[in-house]
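Margin note: ligand = adenosine monophosphate.
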Amino acid sequence: MDLHIGEACGVFGVYAPGHPVANLTYLGLYALQHRGQESAGIAVSDGETVTVVKDMGLVTQVFDERRLAPLDGHLAIGHVRYSTTGTSNWRNAQPVYRSVGDAGFALGHNGNLTNTAELAESLGMLPGMAAAQDLADSTTDSDLVGELLARAYAPEVRSDGRDLETALEHVLPDLAGAFTFVLMDDAHLIGVRDRHGFRPLVLGRIEGGWVLASESAALDIVGAHFVRDIEPGEMVVIDAAGVRERRYAEATPKLCLFEFVYFARPDTKLYGQSIHAARQRMGEELARQAPVDAEMVMPVPESGIPAAQGYARAAGIPYGDGLVKNRYVGRTFIQPSQQLRGQGVRLKLNPLPENIKGKRLVVVDDSIVRGTTTRQVVSMLREAGAAEVHFRVSSPPYRWPCFYGMDTGQRSELLAADMSVGEIRDFLGVDSLAYLDLDRLLTATGALPESFCTACLSGEYPVPVPDIDSKHVLEEDGAEPSPVPRAAESPHPSTS
Ligand code: AMP
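Resulting structure:
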């Protein structure tokens, strides 16, 4: 059994009788495509039957008119899944479906649970156990949750129809780590965030109904308006009677800071802050913290654009383009091997030599994770005749693996895990390199600094994580796990 843990994802849900809910979900998922490119799925209820359609690929590859047309109903959820490592197969596509109660239920999950091993053990499905045979298809932590919920269903269907809600009340307290869920049965749409709210979820209003979405930008696209964030530790139930909310755990907000840095769309708002404006402020802070005498500030498109604009504005250096991005190429990051990733950069970015030649450049990007892309970008700029390349990153060195749903790989894959900033500068072949300090980054968000998870940048994990350097806690290969060093043992980030 390969028990692959869930990944960063996008979730969407709509309760809107009279609307084409499957089409709205398709549009919502399309707006959330950046959160997951591996698989896409939609579950729809017509009040009697829950139907799930899911497949590998982008939203537009999985769904067309023909596949959407039969998905009639008043209630739907959708999911896009992102994966860079581990098993990539149909079984891991979501929504997860379980046939219990009247019509069964469907579940979409964004985040990683941190007690997957304990939960699996409680279900008798540790790797290699014969008893696990009947659950051999359950390969994600999301499947585990589906199984736990199915087992928590009362043997008799409840007369008030609250079977799913009741099962959640039993199961949610046992889950640790990061989970934003959208769930549905034949009559209810439910949204849940873990008590830290690692991953976002918003509530929107659409004429005659309600929408749940990972990001507010997805509300705009379906013509819904933002009502509020689902609170950490909150469950909302939407049905014919309206919206009911329930707090099932005390909130300790720790939204993923990397949502602000990179992951969320710039036209999304988190903690009431425009992500685009926050990224510009990160660039401004970076210019103040790490100034350099240069002739042009340029972004690594697209992720570096707002921060480069902010840097240029604060530094008083002209902003220009030095790289053109092919609009139709997806993220190279999702390619399965390092070799393919390497080739991908050339397909994605092409330099503009006439803008670069002979110039002292400040090149701004939001983050460096593995360093593969960045190193090639630098060498392309050198080949195109740049006189100097001063690289500026609008977040601190990414040194710690995320166990809460940002799949950036194991510790050994992170460039900054064991390298000092000086060593990274030499590895990238740049004239100077600086990363934005964590306190400046937190200030630039415009939100409360203590309301963020900074684990990938600080090594401070708000929820205890498995004591291994990989996220593949339950893989069968029996590889000896190695301990995760604590933040204090690592070389302190510095700029050069
Ligand atoms: P690399 O130099 O290979 O680490 O790639 C750096 C680029 O990856 C930057 O442009 C980042 O914006 C981008 N990036 C950061 N995090 C992720 C992620 N989780 N998925 C895809 N790209 C990412």
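The two ends are 46 Å apart (CA to CA).
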